[in-house]
Amino acid sequence: MDKIIVKGARVHNLKNIDVEIPKNKFVVITGLSGSGKSSLAMDTIFIEGQRRYLESLSTYVRQFIGELKKPDVDSIDGLSPSIAIDQKSVSHNPRSTVGTVTEIYDYLRVLYAQIGVPHCPKCGRELQKMSVDEIVDNITKHFENDRITLLSPVARDKKGTFKDEFEKFISRGYTRIEADGIIYRLDETPELNKNVRHNVSLVIDRISPSESDIHRLFQSVELALKEGNGFLIIRSENGHERLYSEKLSCLSCGLSMPEINAKLFSFNNPYGACPDCHGLGFKLEVDEGSLFEEEKPVIEALKIGHKTDGWLTRRMERILSDYKGDRNKPFSNQPQEVKEALLYGTEYFEGLVALVKERYEEYTSEET
């Protein structure tokens, strides 16, 4: 049906009304206070849609949810399972958006996780699952002349000490673990801070694909995938790294990614948040035009607190000398090479932009 047909609605102050609401349209119910808007939308249509959805579940599930009473209405036709968005006050928290406040964001994350089709960000091909044979062939193709380390990811950006996991690996004969980029012997691993997120991988093998027999490589890959829950990291001695997966991989580029889940679509979760802005949608940058006062000579015009005979002044004077600047002129009248060297640094100076960022991160007050 292309519409929802309500007949004989008598919930609260509704007086046996009939109404037809078109589907796939943005429909607004208006009226005076007390006219029955919420009674029709929430207490009649939504409640009936939710009740029908619960009835479609198994008896076992329904016993935990309970039952919803049928609204006082003769009939409702053309109604699908429904969701309702609560009315809430607007928050000024940068992590609050229209989607989070209305909670439609949670439904969208689940929707994308269920029906989303992942594609390779490099070539655009649809990601597919790789078999052990395909992974071995890809390793021998891309790491033929390298010595590689096979790693099984145990934890990715998770908090904890992982003591139980380490003891389990020791009992099963493993000897090395990589924690936050450093490889340790399992019996010599330092205690990890339980309140900090860590990346932990189990070291499976170190081999050269061109020199070792294919049977050993196959066994190591199979074991790494088993211990890594379907994931395998290959790292060469020069630092080149590839992630392989039995779940989602690009057969052309060799790129792999985790199984799609709702966390990947959450900017409030480190697993899915942008690494640059941390999910806030913006990041603080230095305003280059506010570093110097306009009319003063460049050395005196710097607004960053410093002594005129200190190290910062000496660095600036050296830049003015090396790049043929004039210390008596304001910053705006300096040659372009001088401006770039002052702002972004040289081999002996990190630059004023980097210096301001460091000072901002060092102090909690934005006025410092």
Which fold does the CATH topology of the largest domain refer to? Ribulose 1,5 Bisphosphate Carboxylase/Oxygenase
Known CATH architecture of the largest domain: 2-Layer Sandwich
Form type? flat
Q: Which class of secondary structure composition applies to the elements?
A: alpha+beta
Classified in CATH, the superfamily of the largest domain is Ribosomal protein L1/L10, rRNA-binding domain
**Mean of the pLDDT scores?**
84
Sheet with most strands: strand arrangement: 6-5-7-4-8-9
Short description:
The chain is an alpha+beta fold. It folds into 3 domains: 3-77, no CATH class; 132-245, Ribosomal protein L1/L10, rRNA-binding domain (Ribulose 1,5 Bisphosphate Carboxylase/Oxygenase), CATH 3.30.190.20; 288-362, no CATH class. The protein contains 11 helices and 11 strands.
Describe this structure in words.
The chain has 368 residues and is of the alpha+beta class. The chain folds into three domains: 3-77, no CATH class; 132-245, Ribosomal protein L1/L10, rRNA-binding domain (Ribulose 1,5 Bisphosphate Carboxylase/Oxygenase); 288-362, no CATH class. The chain has eleven helices and eleven strands. Strand 8 (231-236) and strand 9 form a beta hairpin. The longest helix has 19 residues, at 37-55. The radius of gyration is 31 Å and the shape is flat. The N and C termini lie far apart (64 Å). The model has no long low-confidence stretch (mean pLDDT 84).
